[in-house]
Amino acid sequence: QTVGIVVLVVASIKLLHILGIINFSEDSVEDELELSAVRHRPEGLGQLEAQTRFSRKELQILYRGFKNECPSGIVNEETFKDIYAQFFPQGDASTYAHFLFNAFDTDHNGSVSFEDFVMGLSILLRGTIQEKLKWAFNLYDINKDGYITKEEMLDIMKAIYDMMGKCTYPVLKEETPRQHVEVFFQKMDKNKDGVVTIDEFIDCCQNDENIMRSMHLFENVL
Amino acid sequence: MATGVAAWLPFARAAAIGWMPVASCPMPVAPRDHRRRQDELIILNVSGRRFQTWRTTLDRYPDTLLGSSEKDFFYNEETKEYFFDRDPDAFRSILNFYRTGKLHFPRHECISAYDEELTFFGIIPEIIGDCCYEEYKDRKRENLERLQDDQEENKDVKLPHMNFRQTMWRAFENPHTSTMALVFYYVTGFFIAISVITNVVETVPCGSTPTQKDMPCGERYTVAFFCMDTACVMIFTVEYLLRLFAAPSRYRFMRSVMSIIDVVAILPYYIGLVMTDNEDVSGAFVTLRVFRVFRIFKFSRHSQGLRILGYTLKSCASELGFLLFSLTMAIIIFATVMFYAEKGSSSSKFTSIPASFWYTIVTMTTLGYGDMVPKTIAGKIFGSICSLSGVLVIALPVPVIVSNFSRIYHQNQRADKRRAQKGTNTGEQKLPKSACLLESQHHHLLHCLEKTTAHEFVDEQLYEQNYVEAVMQSFPAARRESVSSRDTATPTCCGRRSKRNTTLPIAALQPGVNQQGPLQELSAIHIQCADRPSRSTSRSKLNLKADDVGRLNCKGGRITTAIVSLPSPPALTTPDSDNLRGPPTRRPPLPSPGPSIQTTTSSANVVKVSAL
């Protein structure tokens, strides 16, 4: 009988102690010091000036803005998505930002350094029409195999429509991206083989004056 | 849009080239950047210390002195710098605000000096970052209270025109104001002390008389004590009535703690007077006399410290309650254990669990009276465990609670403040607007996205309405489907505009189908669309080609949108009332396609972009 009581009491004391421990651990501070050990310094100004079509001053301005936002010198995908999402508050820009990130991250190392950033911008803002179209093709071609399939285009289209968000006029329907892709393929896929190659793409875009006009739209951005 | 992210806007706009090949409509024209100023350094000379920064840094906040042309008033032509005769230390944080977008409050700074600097430079203090906001608010409140106290003191001197009542009240509350008040203060204090001492001495045995041994003094010198009591109660009653008369709000005074203490202190005497003859209730009468001890609490009017103690106890009530609760738990556990452990032994004092409570309390508080002692071995084991844990459970939290008093007190206040701040801060989150050019560029970017997807941003309510309409729209579906079988899902880039011109192919529809008032996004921002003519011509050109698939689905789209606006509420009566919408020629009689409709609305067309 005594033994039973002893066991009971020990169990209850253990319980009490456990509760006590739980009570006292309220102010356990979880300090996760994120030491971003990765730092990146870009190549020299002269080299970048040679590789891109920006002037020295423009590179300086670009770098100052870049470094202000990303003091460590590189942008990882999360930060990239956050930054891009701030421009599209109504929708979900993360998918498209992911594709964009892959388009900028030319060496596929998971982060965009200032060189990648400035090379991409150089093409987009100062490149020839061919280069811009090639860049756009590269963006659409998710697996970078040289062909845009309908599935890839559908992913891209869905990502773009996601950025619009829910509250649109007219109401976004499920099949809207798919139909848009159909329209796109009907226009671009000349030989109707189900994929769009880079030559078909460039040819078709060059014949379309709307697209040509809009390619010049952002030339004075910087 | 945060200022830091503004640096990425050119990137976002450049990346928009990725949408161009898939866009279904032509893009709007980009806003022109008229200020093609190259970035230049500005020198700000603040009382001799020179700060330098880029001009664009200062231009981020055009609502402030440094961001607007107001700083030109301080421009010094000879030295080509802006000179401000202000405190350079405070200016550091102000300049950092421009650089980083966050305003910090330096701890060593005086709050009123800092406020003045902020006001001078046109920055509202509400945008102080979260890291410094509490500190700032605390200091500001302290300062305000100090100012108020100072003001009150000055007011006391400066207001001779108080009537008698107010003078009396002031005299009661602040004994230092006049000699009479001081005298009154000391007299009442003296009588409170007398009354308390009397109560105490009443019960002391006074020595023996021939009739009885060891009477308490109260029964020996009844008359003397009675006179003393009467005198004290007289004074207290008079004081209470005077306070009641002088109080600015009698109702509030009667509800306050001090007045209740007063009443409780003097009431037993009167009740005793009334009931002296009735022997039955003498027991109750005796109990009432206990309340006379409450007179000691009247001292709290005389002592600031007592008041603070009472207040802190009240505010720490939850912590004390928790301590009590955990103690009760421990007591119950140990009492149960001891009872069952001692159940076996004979002549055990542990007759029941509540009886064991007493043992547990005495042991845990390490008092150890020894009136109840365990006799069995198990009982002794558990008894020792009980006393050990008593030390832990009781002795440890006591200093913690003592130090918790101030911490919890401040913490509670801070939590309330934060809750109150959250309510106001979300409203005050409006940072000063960044430059209009940035906003227009952002809107242009969003507009391009709209054009790419051939859908427009609307706000929540309109979306709900449209959704409802779209659901209702599914009914007269048959006819529509035949016409617009291709493009039901992609109404157009010209959706908005053609809606206005829409004609009704279905007879059932009301005329004046163009906007119901609510569908017009009156809260939206309007951007002039400069490329209207080209668009209408291109659209008209395309409309003639029936087989142009890839381009604007205007034809089908028009019909679709016409039907969308079918269940128009009565706001139809004024189709032309919206001046923003452009020319009034909006009711062509037939569903005739093509250019005629488009071109009539070509002038002064306003494209709406939802406010973002």
Automatic annotation (TrEMBL), chain A:
One GO CC term, this protein: peroxisome
Gene3D superfamilies linked to this entry: EF-hand
Pfam family membership, one: EF-hand_7
GO biological process per UniProt: regulation of potassium ion transmembrane transport
Main location: membrane
Lineage: superkingdom: Eukaryota
Keywords: Calcium, Cell membrane, Cytoplasm, Ion channel, Ion transport, Membrane, Metal-binding, Peroxisome, Phosphoprotein, Potassium, Potassium channel, Potassium transport, Repeat, Signal, Transport, Voltage-gated channel
EF-hand domain mapped to chain residues: 92-127, 128-163, 176-211
Family: Belongs to the recoverin family.
Protein name, as recorded: Kv channel-interacting protein 4
